[in-house]
Amino acid sequence: MPREKFEEAWNPNQVAISLSGEPTMYKFLADLLLECHKRGIRTFLVTNGTSPAVLERLDPLPYQLYVTVAGPNEDVSTAFAPRRPPDSGRIFRKPSSCCPPSGAGPSYATRS
After folding, report:
1. How many Cα atoms sit within 13 Å of 59 on the Cβ side?
2. Is 67 helix (H, G, I), strand (E, B) or coil?
3. Rounded distance between C-alpha atoms, residue 63 and residue 99, angstroms
4. Of 61, 65, 64, which Cα lies nearest the Cα of 29?
5. CA 79 to chain centre
6. Which domain holds residue 88?
7. Residue 111 lies in a domain
8. Minimal CA–CA distance to 52: which of 88, 18, 22, 80?
9. DSSP readout, 25-38?
10. Is residue 112 part of a domain?
11. For residue 61, what are the β-bridge partners?
12. What is the CA radius of gyration of the chain?
């Protein structure tokens, strides 16, 4: 392996956070995001939207947020994923409460 590629692998500038399961269940998610942002690493959070309350409280925000849903609306999504928490449908009813504004980039401000 070329030394340049080795150094690049040890100094990432982007991180996709999807873990092996739902990343919003990880209680140190905000700490992970903050540490990445301090190091100048862009963060990409991939979630299935089952915990909109976690997304609302998240500080700092990821640089980009990807929400995967099981259907085009709450009814279809619930039919395909009936065991999801009852609150998870809020991602359809009020998405702006769970997602940062488009192009907001990372945020270090506390939400009010």
Report:
1. 7
2. strand
3. 11
4. 61
5. 24
6. 11-97
7. no
8. 88
9. G-TTHHHHHHHHHH
10. no
11. 107
12. 16
The amino acid present at 96, given as its one-letter code, is S
Determine the residue type at 61: L
Structure tokens at 48: 């299935």
pLDDT tens for 46-79 read 988 778 888 888 889 899 888 877 777 778 877 7
What's the CA angle centered on 49, arms 47 and 53, to 5 degrees? 110
Could you identify the residue written with the tokens 């873990």? Answer: 19
- How confident is the model over 85-94, as pLDDT tens digits? 666 666 666 6
**pTM of the predicted protein model:** 0.71
Residue 6 lies in a domain: no
21 located within any domain: yes
DSSP state letter for 5? H
Nearest alpha carbon to residue 56 among 94, 102, 106: 94
Q: Is 72 helix (H, G, I), strand (E, B) or coil?
A: coil
